[in-house]
Amino acid sequence: MSEFGKINDNELLYLIQEGSEEALELMFQKYDPLIKTKMKRFKIEADIAEDCLQEGRLMLLKAIKLYDASSNKTFNKYFDLILTNRLISLLRENKRKDNITYMTEEIEDANNRENKELENFDYSKLKLSDMEKEIYKMRFLRNFKVSDICQILKVSEKTVYNSIQRIKNKLDELK
């Protein structure tokens, strides 16, 4: 830190606009602690901490570029607001990704359970024909659309609907 050490934000912003790399570096040094404090306050996990720090620095650049000195807010407050909003967005995005991962894992678990059910299902109780067994697997266990079943089995919709009705009747008889 040279002579820029004791310059306020507005003077630093002016020097940055004039192209001073040293002033820009000083702004980063000055506001890195604020970024890190915000990250601690938001309880940013270690696996995304470096990304959040970089995002914070990008938000500092954005604040430097967009700050209007004639506004009623200080640069510090303006940057703090931008940083807070961005960290909230990052946490929401990360939570959404976690939810998608969790849902994907649940779907895979459900598919594995379904495959085990298919292996253990006793079709002899229902007395299903080979066609009805296939339609039962696709429609009731895998939730295929009727149109998809028609294409896979190369049969008409009427055949599929009739088979579904017969399967339902046979299931009702078991109850």
Shape: rod-shaped
Whole-number mean pLDDT: 82
Total of helices: 7
Overall radius of gyration: 31 Å
Q: The CATH topology of the largest domain, please? A: Rna Polymerase Sigma Factor, Chain: A
- State the CATH architecture of the largest domain: Orthogonal Bundle
Which structural category fits the helices and strands?
mainly alpha
In short:
The protein is mainly alpha-helical. Helix content is 77%, strand content 0%. It has two domains: 3-101, Rna Polymerase Sigma Factor, Chain: A; 122-174, Arc Repressor Mutant, subunit A.
Structural account:
- The chain has about 180 residues and is mainly α.
- About 75% of the residues lie in helices and about 0% in strands.
- It contains seven helices and no strands.
- Helix 2 crosses helix 3 and helix 6 packs across helix 7.
- The longest helix has about 45 residues.
- The termini are far apart.
How are the SSEs placed, and which strands pair?
Blueprint: H1 9-17, H2 21-41, H3 46-66, H4 75-120, H5 130-141, H6 146-153, H7 157-174
Can you tag this structure with a few keywords?
Arc Repressor Mutant, subunit A, single chain, 175 residues, mainly alpha, Rna Polymerase Sigma Factor, Chain: A, 2 domains
